[in-house]
Amino acid sequence: MPDSWEVVQKCAGFVVVISAAALILTGALVVHPMLENSTLSYRPTVCKTSYSYKSGGEACWCGKNCKSVARCLVVMVTMNSSSPALLVQSEEVMRVSDKCSLYYCLRDKDRMDRLVEEFQTAYGQQGQKYRCLYNAHDPQVSTVLPSHTLHCHTESPAEANVQPVVDLPRTVLGRPGIGSVVLLLSVGSRWAGPKRE
Question: Domain spans of the chain?
Answer without folding.
Answer: 1-36, 43-186
